[in-house]
Amino acid sequence: MKKKFNNSTTRVIVSIFLGIILGVFVCFMAIRTGYTYVKSSSLTEYSVNILGFTIFDIQKVGNEFKGTPNNSNMMFIGIIFSMILATATEIVIALKNRKGRGITND
């Protein structure tokens, strides 16, 4: 299993996939928190924001709450998480390889 992740292409693909999953989870938790906040307060409208991007609008219609997703912003959040995770993974691997070689300045 460890040999599969020696290939940088495989690492980047896995990092992108995990970043998208992480972005979906963060959006899910933010929307869930937004619904909890709106239901516990007297608000009739609420916009769920992540990193300054509105990902979900919640409105009270009668006695129930209805939400409208902003799919393009949610997709952008997933891309941001993917890029961060892929970059962080490659930096960590590069630092490990650098320390593992025992580079000396003779």
From TrEMBL:
Keyword set, alphabetical order: Membrane, Transmembrane, Transmembrane helix
Transmembrane segments: 12-31, 74-95
Pfam short name (any one): DUF5963
Name of protein: Protein LlsX
Source species: Enterococcus termitis
